[in-house]
Write a structure and sequence with these properties.
Elements: E1 6-12, H1 18-28, E2 30-36, E3 43-48, H2 49-56, E4 66-70, E5 73-84, E6 91-98, E7 105-114, H3 120-123, E8 128-131, E9 135-140, E10 149-152, E11 161-163, E12 174-175, E13 186-191, H4 194-211
């Protein structure tokens, strides 16, 4: 689990509706948010836009337990959804899920690829790494939530594919995908250079011509 600490100061929002949300963003520099889950009722919140922009600039924010300061009360939560403006660098809305330290949570965690330049298929074979996933969904207790999961490409050879089941997960962490049938998805593949494929095709054609 990351040593980073994320806290956001929030206020309870009573003025609801689309019009109120637009005024909130345009005039007050805040965004609407919702905290839900657990045994308590959902709470509509407002959060300063500058604060959440700063927090979301750190990748760990998305796979970390966050403290929401709501007046004098503190709520532990994880981010579940973030709505961004399609064309501008603005966050429009945030959803947070309450956590219980004794109950497991499901969170998407980023993948960090290591030893890409030293990868056997790249260094020896001249291949390239094609990444098909940049995050996976995991299930764990809040205390075991990792900031990221490492994918070591060092020994991956040309033409080989790394699947979710090939990735060592931290203690107490399980892959949600692997609990489903056909859920062992490809994470990355070391592909041969394009020229090598062309040369192989040319040699096969030449062999056919010789045979004829």
């Amino acid at each position: 689990m990351s040593t980073d600490v994320f806290e956001l100061d929030c206020t309870v929002r009573t003025d609801l509706g689309k019009g109120a949300s637009r005024r909130l963003r345009r005039l007050e520099g805040n965004i609407p948010a919702v905290l839900y889950g657990g045994d308590a009722d959902p709470i509509s919140l407002t959060i300063p836009h500058k604060d959440i922009i700063k927090a979301t600039s750190n990748e760990a924010f998305f796979s970390h337990v966050i403290t929401l300061n709501i007046g004098k009360k503190k709520e532990k939560a994880v981010i579940k959804a973030l709505q961004r403006h399609p064309a501008k660098p603005f966050i429009l809305h945030a959803d947070f899920l309450r956590i219980n330290e004794k109950q497991s949570i499901t969170v998407k965690v980023p993948l960090h690829f290591t030893n890409e330049e030293k990868c056997a298929g790249v260094k020896i074979g001249g291949g390239s790494i094609l990444k098909t996933l940049n995050e996976i969904e995991v299930d764990c207790l809040p205390k075991d939530l990792p900031e990221f999961i490492e994918v070591d490409m060092l020994k991956v050879e040309m033409g080989s594919t790394v699947h979710i089941s090939d990735i060592p997960l931290p203690a107490g962490v399980t892959s949600v995908s692997l609990t489903h049938e056909d859920g062992d998805l490809a994470v990355a593949t070391v592909k041969a250079p394009k020229g090598e494929k062309a040369d192989k095709a040319d040699s096969e054609d030449a062999g056919d011509d010789a045979g004829e």
